[in-house]
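can u do me a favor
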């Protein structure tokens, strides 16, 4: 199945658009994985579909399965590396119409425990590439090691 490309979509255009909020971790069969630069929830990632669709229902059954498999793979890596008490999953896209899921680790003694996570609370936005890579590297290794 062929899907469109939107040059104004951060996940399609990649580069500077996605780098405003995400740091590339790796490519998986159905998605690209980014570390969310706002790390008030240590280990928070985004899994973005390779297809420019707004909702999962626009994918074929096999594409949906592949996307959820990628999400689960990233979830396993977050659990193994960051050891959250709970992992929250969020799919929004009211304004950014590209299928993606936020995987937000929650910690009992941490920020926003017991509530809904904010999209961009601006509590701990990391811009330093070395610091981002220090967080992304063990997650990348844990994702790749699952192959």
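np, heres the sequence
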């Amino acid at each position: 199945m062929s899907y469109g490309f939107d040059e104004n979509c951060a996940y399609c255009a990649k580069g500077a658009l996605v780098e405003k909020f995400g740091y590339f971790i790796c490519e998986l069969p159905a998605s690209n994985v980014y570390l969310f630069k706002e790390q008030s929830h240590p280990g928070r990632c985004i899994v973005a579909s390779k297809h420019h669709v707004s909702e999962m229902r626009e994918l074929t059954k096999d594409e949906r399965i592949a996307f959820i498999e990628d999400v689960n793979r990233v979830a396993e890596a977050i659990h193994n590396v960051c050891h959250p008490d709970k992992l929250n999953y969020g799919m929004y896209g009211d304004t950014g119409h590209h299928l993606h899921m936020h995987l937000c680790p929650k910690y009992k003694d941490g920020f926003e425990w017991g509530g809904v996570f904010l999209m961009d609370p601006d509590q701990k936005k990391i811009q330093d590439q070395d610091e981002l890579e220090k967080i992304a590297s063990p997650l990348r290794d844990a994702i790749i090691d699952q192959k």
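The chain has one domain: 10-144. hope that helps!!
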